[in-house]
Inverse folding.
């Protein structure tokens, strides 16, 4: 065996390889989690059933509602169903990629296993929030897109490349903003004695994003609209991409969501690193 | 070469929430919380040269793990400075983190449901190890630890000892210059302990890596380390050769006396502390300067079949050292 | 529409080992220790309460938009104000009937074999669990009284004041029965763990389904008549729908008595079922060794 005391010369590694490292890691983590999930097929199936059931309940709810009215907050049934599908798909992305990891964070803090992750020469935020892919909720993404497709079909929507492109961009921005909020909630578990499950917190918090902005348009609710659109922009997450597809495009909102994405991502990262620092000075 | 680890007067205090008892206490702490300051580490200094294999000993809660965590950069000291591999550890530069490993016996870093080889692959990406070097190192390590056939098996199906070996491989894959081992043999049976010791010794000899080891098992320490650092109650109380501990703390000798009679005489406690009695054989602990006197006294009064003078086992000695470092001194 | 998660944080209980004392003292002790444990988590509680208000707010706004969109005063017999009152009252029902972690806890004890301690100690599992749960409920309701008081005060204009004394009495009765139904229903599900290891999976499905069929999302009256009729004889409506409509005075006279009677029947039925499964399960457990 040769002398191991010479460390790996990092510069000798291909710099391009170094940059794509995160993507390759993500792909590998995704594969491993898929293999693992498939070895517990029963569990996987139950989770998928619960999600399908949940979607069915959601659709039953709105069917019941739209049996009594033709329009809710200026959204027609088809438009509204698109909104529901968009929320479902977007939340599916968040849950597939990040929710379980963030949920696990408070456990890592409590057991001290977080220490090991901090020792690795890699970005902490990446390692903590992207460690596992929760494949069992990934069908939600497909289901969400199916609902969007059906509502577009029912509406007699005509293909519009610009709208689709804008939808892609704003949908991605929505995911990024939602992720930022989740990261902030996650970071809080460093300070809280026993964090209630992040799953629950996320569910409660994301209820803000679940409905069209227009429901906030009267009386005291207007202040909520301002706060959660311009200060904590959670309302943008589903509203902007859905509007882009179903209603008149608002360039200023598209520009705003881009700015909001950059700001939320950087602020949440700052907060997360602060939480980690605090964890390190508090632990023994 | 400069030292691998240089610790300069570091201390670590932290405050813990004092939980009050019972219903009333819980109600009170809802509004006002009291914290106690705990001094986990008090003014410790030492340095470790490249290639050394050092044992870091102390009773539970002495501050060993806290010190290891400071050295690996996980926590900041309250006072003092340290350099590890030339870096200030708690700045946690990537370059620094690439060059050492921390293995904790009671924690599992590998993916539980997957074969260890998958975890190794992840490790390769995380540490950015060039492929060829990775294959080579992995091959050497699996051969050294004798686990070539087990890397494709799910980690949860492995025995405790095999799992520890996999943990070690993961920790060594990126060829760290410094290895911090926290209780690597905890919970293992004697055979597995000896294998791990053997592997560590061989790896250390071949690669001249610097190792800092904490362990409850003096066998680990005796097998692996020449130098020992002892801390108790947060303070450094000994730093030197393992054999030096006897000179400094071992003021007693162990007399093993086999009497000719079927039963040993009943009045032995006047000479020293009586240990185990097996048939006519007695273990007697006597302060070192008195050994000759005691022996001649006993020889004068009783017929003796056999006698030997030994040092008490290191285990007992260390336990004594821990006590002496206690708050009373 | 509101949340699929019960209004109380999920806590998997841990068991203090109880002392050999008089029966009442024993259960009282369990109750007190559990209350103390609950109080320690204040920050969680504050943040949790804030977050729990969000779905309420959005629900109110959504229904406002629905009524406005429909252009009608009354939907399925509910005025807008009654609808909001109903959705708020559902939270009170769930405060009593939700049992987070109960079934999962029981099935875990069965799976991990820790159940044995109930067989060794002079302590009845269901008796122990119900006193533990009661403690949690009392603490939770006490702690939640302030925030909920504030919410109901802010939302007082959705209500027509307190209903008459007999209705109030019926309401309290329906809530207590809903606690029992909730408890024994989940306990019975947990007991299935004696035969079927993966109870948690059934549980997820039940919880999700229960969310809709217990009337937490909308009053059952809004559903097509067939479904509404079917769900109104099922036990699930008592975990949310029934107490709320009792309070609103939508069920009165003989209908009310009939409803309470059916509720009592379901409570007794599930209590019996849980005990029955427990006894059968123990025999099974004993035979196969846990």
């Amino acid at each position: 065996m040769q002398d191991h005391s010479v460390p790996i010369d990092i510069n000798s590694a291909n710099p391009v390889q170094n940059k794509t490292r995160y993507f390759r890691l993500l792909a590998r983590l995704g594969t491993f989690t898929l293999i693992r999930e498939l070895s517990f097929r029963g569990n996987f199936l139950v989770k998928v059933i619960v999600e399908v059931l949940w979607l069915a309940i959601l659709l039953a709810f709105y069917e019941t509602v739209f049996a009594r009215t033709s329009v809710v907050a200026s959204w027609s049934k088809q438009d509204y169903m698109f909104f529901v599908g968009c929320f479902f798909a977007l939340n599916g992305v968040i849950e597939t990629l990040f929710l379980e990891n963030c949920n696990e964070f408070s456990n890592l803090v409590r057991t001290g296993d977080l220490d090991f992750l901090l020792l690795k020469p890699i970005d902490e935020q990446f390692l903590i929030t992207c460690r596992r892919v929760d494949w069992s909720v990934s069908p939600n993404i497909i289901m969400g897109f199916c609902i969007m497709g059906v509502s577009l079909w029912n509406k007699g929507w005509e293909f519009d490349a610009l709208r689709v492109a804008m939808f892609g961009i704003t949908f991605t921005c929505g995911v990024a903003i939602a992720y930022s909020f989740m990261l902030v909630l996650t970071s809080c578990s460093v300070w809280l004695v026993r964090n209630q499950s992040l799953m629950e917190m996320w569910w409660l918090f994301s209820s803000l994003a679940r409905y069209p902005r227009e429901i906030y348009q009267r009386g005291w609710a207007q202040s909520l609209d301002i706060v959660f659109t311009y200060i904590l922009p959670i309302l943008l997450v589903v509203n902007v991409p859905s509007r882009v597809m179903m209603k008149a495009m608002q360039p200023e909102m598209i520009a705003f969501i881009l700015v909001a994405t950059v700001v939320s991502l950087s602020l949440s990262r700052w907060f997360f690193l602060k939480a980690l620092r605090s964890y390190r000075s508090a632990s023994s | 070469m400069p030292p691998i680890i240089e610790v300069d007067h570091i201390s670590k205090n932290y405050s813990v929430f004092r939980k009050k008892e019972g219903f009333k206490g819980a109600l009170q702490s809802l509004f006002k919380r009291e914290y106690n300051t705990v001094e986990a580490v008090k003014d410790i200094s030492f340095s470790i040269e490249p290639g050394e294999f050092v044992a870091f000993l102390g009773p539970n809660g002495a501050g060993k793990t806290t010190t290891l965590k400071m050295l690996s950069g996980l926590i900041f000291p309250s006072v003092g400075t340290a350099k590890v591999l030339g870096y200030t550890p708690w700045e946690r530069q990537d370059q620094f983190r690439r060059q050492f490993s921390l293995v904790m016996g009671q924690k599992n870093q590998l993916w539980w449901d997957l074969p260890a080889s998958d975890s190794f692959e992840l490790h390769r990406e995380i540490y950015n190890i060039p492929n060829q070097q990775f294959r080579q190192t992995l091959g050497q390590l699996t051969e050294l630890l004798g686990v070539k056939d087990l890397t494709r098996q799910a980690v949860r199906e492995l025995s405790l000892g095999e799992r520890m070996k996999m943990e070690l491989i993961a920790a060594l894959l990126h060829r760290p210059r410094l290895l911090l081992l926290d209780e690597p043999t905890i919970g293992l049976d004697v055979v597995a302990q000896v294998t791990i010791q053997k592997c560590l010794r061989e790896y250390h000899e071949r690669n001249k890596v610097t190792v800092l080891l904490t362990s409850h098992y003096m066998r680990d320490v005796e097998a692996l380390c020449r130098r020992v650092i002892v801390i108790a109650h947060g303070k450094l109380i000994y730093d030197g050769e393992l054999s030096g501990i006897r000179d400094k703390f071992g003021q007693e000798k162990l007399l093993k006396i086999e009497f000719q009679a079927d039963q040993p005489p009943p009045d032995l406690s006047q000479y020293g502390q009586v240990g185990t009695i097996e048939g006519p054989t007695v273990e007697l602990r006597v302060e070192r300067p008195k050994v000759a006197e005691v022996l001649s006294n006993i020889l004068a009064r009783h017929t003796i079949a056999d006698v030997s003078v030994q040092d008490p086992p290191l285990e007992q000695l260390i336990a004594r050292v821990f006590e002496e470092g206690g708050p009373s001194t | 529409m509101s949340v699929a998660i019960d209004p109380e944080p999920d806590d998997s209980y841990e068991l203090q080992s109880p002392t050999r004392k008089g029966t009442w003292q024993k259960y009282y002790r369990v109750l007190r220790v559990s209350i103390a444990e609950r109080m320690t988590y204040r920050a969680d509680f504050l943040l949790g309460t804030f977050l729990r208000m969000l779905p309420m707010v959005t629900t109110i706004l959504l229904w406002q938009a629905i009524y406005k969109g429909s252009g009608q005063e009354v939907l399925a017999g509910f005025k807008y104000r009654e609808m909001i009152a109903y959705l708020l009252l559902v939270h009170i029902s769930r405060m009593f009937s939700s049992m987070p972690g109960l079934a999962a806890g029981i099935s875990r004890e069965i799976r991990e074999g820790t159940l044995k301690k109930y067989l060794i100690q002079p302590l009845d599992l269901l008796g122990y669990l119900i006193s533990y749960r009661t403690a949690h409920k009392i603490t939770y309701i006490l702690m939640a009284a302030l925030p909920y008081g504030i919410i109901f005060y802010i939302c007082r204009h959705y209500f027509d004041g307190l209903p008459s004394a007999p209705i109030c009495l019926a309401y309290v009765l329906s809530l207590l029965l809903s606690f029992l139904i909730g408890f024994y229903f989940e306990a019975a599900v947990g007991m299935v763990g004696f035969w079927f290891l993966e109870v948690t999976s059934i549980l997820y499905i039940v919880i999700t389904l229960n969310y809709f069929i217990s009337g937490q999302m909308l009053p059952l009256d809004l559903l097509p008549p067939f479904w509404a009729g079917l769900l109104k004889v099922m036990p699930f409506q008592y975990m949310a729908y029934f107490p709320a409509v009792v309070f609103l005075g939508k069920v009165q006279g003989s209908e009310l008595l009939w409803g309470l009677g059916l509720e009592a029947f379901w409570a007794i039925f599930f209590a019996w079922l849980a005990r029955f499964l427990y006894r059968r399960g123990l025999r099974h457990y004993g035979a196969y060794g846990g």
Chain A has one domain: 14-282.
